[in-house]
């Protein structure tokens, strides 16, 4: 939405254009005091500006809401675990961006790899009968762990006929891309990923992680440019998701928080997803994965206990499930076969 569509004094509009606030929604990504310093406007002018922008944005909802109203199909991609699928009402939604955040070692990449295999099953088994494209922005792709998960599919997916699993060449349908900076990420999302989607080679897009590049390429003083880049990046993801009816999963890092009253933060814990409100307003579903201070055992295996939580989603309750990472994958805990062995 353009500034000319707002009922504002031309002097105010000229001020925001002078500092390169390109669209109305960007005014809501900046605090009032920062807008005053940036534009030179008075406190009263900034209040008028943000009130007009908020009113306009309510009339023209942001991308996630538009997806729900116009393009949200209700299609789900199974996580490959009945307990976690129950939490997510069937799995990850197509036609929207899902964020999975958590501290290092929480199990985010484990769950993303599991989804890269789950997507390859036919629809009757919770998949989309296609492959996945996995964009790495910081670490090398975990090939060995993917191979281990592939070998464990018969044990993980007992709901799928063994003959169907053995006939699949899972590794051939996971396309790996590496993006070391925002320019290479942009090229990947604008050229290679649309080609894979258009040719129906993939039906899942994973970005691991979204925070790595945006944290490393911008200084604190570059907050406006970073906000604009984040909005542009999220618009690209939403466009791809909506056009190809494809789930998009963005893995995010976390940052320490000093208050527990943030409604966009986790259910519990002292961390919150990175990149702030600008990014939070661009995702449709926010999930968080945490490590707990307990271990759990099953047979000859043991695992640190995890918890997958729904932070916000238009179709989900704010809830969570305990889970563990086994050799064959990530599973929610729901049976007496899992024994908690103590506090770490």
UniProtKB/TrEMBL annotation:
Q: Could you list the residue ranges that cross the membrane? A: none
| Primary location group | nucleus
Tell me the InterPro entries matching this sequence. AAA+_ATPase (IPR003593), DNA_recomb/repair_RecA-like (IPR016467), HHH_XRCC3_RAD51B (IPR058766), P-loop_NTPase (IPR027417), Rad51_C (IPR013632), RecA_ATP-bd (IPR020588), XRCC3-like_C (IPR047348)
- Protein localization: Nucleus
Q: Which CDD domains match?
A: XRCC3
Which is a Pfam family this sequence falls into?
Rad51
Q: Name one GO cellular component term.
A: Rad51C-XRCC3 complex
Every copy of the RecA family profile domain together lies at 73-254
Question: What SMART domains does this protein's entry cite?
Answer: AAA
Top-rank taxon of the source lineage equals Eukaryota
Q: Which family does it belong to?
A: Belongs to the RecA family. RAD51 subfamily.
PANTHER family per record: DNA REPAIR PROTEIN XRCC3
Question: What protein does this entry describe?
Answer: RecA family profile 1 domain-containing protein
């Amino acid at each position: 939405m353009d500034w000319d569509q707002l009922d504002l004094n031309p002097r105010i509009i000229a001020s925001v254009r002078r500092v390169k606030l390109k669209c109305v929604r960007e005014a809501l990504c900046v605090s009032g005091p920062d807008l005053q310093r940036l534009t030179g406007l008075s406190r009263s002018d900034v209040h008028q500006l943000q009130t007009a922008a908020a009113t306009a944005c309510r009339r023209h909802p942001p991308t996630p809401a538009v997806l729900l109203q116009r393009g949200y199909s209700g299609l789900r991609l199974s996580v490959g675990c009945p307990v976690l699928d129950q939490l997510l009402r069937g799995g990850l939604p197509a036609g929207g961006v899902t964020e999975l955040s958590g501290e290092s070692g929480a199990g985010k990449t484990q769950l993303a790899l599991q989804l890269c295999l789950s997507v390859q099953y036919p629809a009757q088994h919770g998949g989309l009968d296609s492959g996945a494209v996995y964009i790495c922005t910081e670490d090398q792709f975990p090939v060995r762990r993917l191979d281990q998960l592939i070998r464990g599919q018969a044990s993980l997916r007992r709901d799928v006929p063994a003959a169907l699993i053995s006939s699949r060449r899972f590794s051939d349908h996971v396309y790996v891309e590496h993006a070391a900076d925002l320019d290479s990420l942009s090229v990947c999302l604008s050229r290679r990923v649309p080609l894979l989607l258009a040719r129906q080679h993939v039906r899942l897009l994973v970005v691991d992680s979204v925070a790595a590049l945006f944290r490393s390429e911008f200084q604190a003083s570059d907050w406006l440019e970073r906000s604009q880049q984040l909005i542009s990046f999220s618009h690209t993801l939403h466009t791809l998701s909506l056009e190809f009816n494809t789930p998009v999963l963005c893995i995010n890092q976390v940052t320490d928080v000093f208050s527990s009253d943030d409604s966009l933060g986790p259910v519990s814990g002292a961390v919150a997803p990175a990149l702030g409100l600008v990014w939070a307003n661009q995702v449709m579903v926010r999930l968080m994965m945490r490590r707990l201070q307990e271990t759990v055992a099953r047979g000859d295996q043991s695992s640190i206990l995890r918890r997958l939580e729904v932070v916000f989603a238009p179709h989900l309750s704010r809830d969570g499930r305990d889970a563990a990472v086994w050799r064959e994958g990530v599973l929610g805990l729901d049976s007496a076969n899992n024994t908690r062995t103590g506090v770490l």
